[in-house]
Write a structure and sequence with these properties.
- This protein is an alpha/beta fold.
- It contains eleven helices and 26 strands.
- β25, α10 and β26 form a beta-alpha-beta unit.
């Protein structure tokens, strides 16, 4: 398989915006080479840098040094310890270890073999234990170039990307680290999580500006008065059509949604307020197989999907829900995502989720549990609202009010964290 450059942008093109100013491709390569020269012996790098620039230079250092990067969106101490034990010869690189020594020589642009394993990305654990997925260079490059074309990122007017998502998650990796390598954009590397930080970040970078975020964070950013945005991009969870329309009206900017998974990366987009149909990237197509739908993409193995889809003749598709999303009780079926949407749509509910017990299929008396963040509402009032909207068999046996759900930095709810919350409440 043919090789391709680590960075296929002009030498003077800005790749990242730091609080000290823009960083062009030459300086970035020099910083990455300096870190590569300090890496200890071994086959793997566990990249736990939280600073986006240090994360990116450490990833590039691994490519320069022939290492495989282990990436986990929200690594805890226990996850880090488990990965170090699982992958012998792993060097853990955090923000301190990735502190570069500026002023190094700029190396020649490295060529990376397309079939080279460059990273192993782990799922977020929202449906169980994190699962490893290998990533080869050609597939990552192809998807970055396709995304750049889809979002209109051209060198005549490079965009500035402000991402509220961590770089170690597949979505953040693709949009805020790899995309600047292969498309005309530069990613912001300063704080950008809380609303005030996002506002400051958008004001600090040159136009055209693109905000990369999640549905949960979009709700939390409602008070922003940002400078003009070229686009807003959302992923990691389904984006409500009403929310997308409200954001477009408030900020006068199109809201695009990315469909993908850690297994296959980003594969399709849509403008959520305008259509239910998803359009695959160039070089990507969806097919229906004997075992269900799968994604076919350049330089990657066919990847089964956990979602049911409706394929159209023009290659677009509609999502019908996750194939594992159906909850069966009392001879009836309901979509878990649909139940969650009803719950979070109740007046006064800021966040909420239905929890399916592990033994639902084995214990006839098992029932759903709901956990909500709803200051000012009572359990009785919330249950009364639910009775008007869902089949009685799916009413939660318990509805637990909490101050916050244990969401990670992407807004996802790791199942174990949710179960720990329930166990703690039960013990109390």
């Amino acid at each position: 398989m043919a090789s391709s450059p680590l960075i296929d942008r002009p030498a003077g093109a800005a790749l990242f915006h730091t609080q000290d100013g823009p960083v062009d491709a030459g300086r970035f390569l020099a910083d990455a080479a300096e870190i590569a020269g300090r890496l200890p012996a071994g086959d793997y790098i566990l990249n736990v840098c939280r600073d986006r620039y240090r994360f990116a230079t450490t990833l590039a250092a691994g490519l320069l040094a022939g290492r495989v990067s282990l990436l986990c969106g929200d690594p805890s101490a226990s996850v880090v310890a488990g990965l170090v034990e699982r992958f012998a010869g792993t060097a853990v690189v955090g923000d301190g270890e990735a502190e570069g020594a500026p002023g190094g020589a700029v190396p020649a642009m490295p060529q990376i073999a397309g079939d080279r394993l460059v990273a192993i990305v782990f799922t977020s654990g929202s449906t169980g234990a994190p699962v490893a997925h290998p990533k080869h260079w050609a597939a990552l490059v192809a998807r970055s170039r396709a995304a750049g074309e889809r979002f209109g990122l051209f060198e005549t007017e490079p965009a500035s990307i402000v991402g509220t998502v961590p770089p170690g998650h597949m979505y953040g990796l693709e949009t805020t680290v790899l995309l600047p390598f292969h498309a005309a954009c530069a990613a912001w590397c300063g704080p950008a999580f809380f609303a005030a930080d996002v506002q400051s970040a958008l004001e600090a970078v040159p136009k055209p500006r693109v905000l990369v975020t999640t549905p949960l964070q979009l709700r939390n950013l409602a008070t922003l008065t940002p400078p003009p945005l070229q686009a807003i991009i959302s992923a990691t969870a389904p984006l409500d059509t009403a929310l997308a329309g409200a954001v477009e009206a408030r900020w006068s900017s199109p809201v695009f949604e990315i469909f993908g998974a850690t297994e296959c990366g980003s594969v399709a987009t849509r403008r959520t307020a305008e259509t239910e149909s998803w359009l695959p990237y160039e070089g990507v197509s969806l097919h229906e197989g004997a075992a269900g739908p799968f994604v076919r993409a350049a330089f990657a193995a066919d990847t089964p999907l956990a979602d049911a889809v409706e394929l159209a003749a023009d290659g677009s598709f509609r999502l019908l829900g996750r194939r594992t999303d159906l909850v069966k009780m009392g001879g009836r079926r309901a979509s878990l995502a649909g139940l969650n949407e009803i719950l979070t749509g109740l007046e006064g509910v800021r966040d909420g989720v239905f929890v399916v017990p592990d033994d639902l299929d084995r214990r006839s008396t098992a029932r759903l549990v709901a956990v909500v963040v709803a200051p000012g509402r009572t359990v009785a009032g919330l249950l009364a609202d639910l009775r008007e909207r869902i089949d009685p068999v799916f009413l939660p046996r318990r509805l637990i009010q909490v101050e916050a759900l244990p969401r990670n930095s992407l807004g996802k709810l790791p199942r174990e964290a949710l179960l720990d919350l329930l166990r703690t409440r039960d013990a109390a």
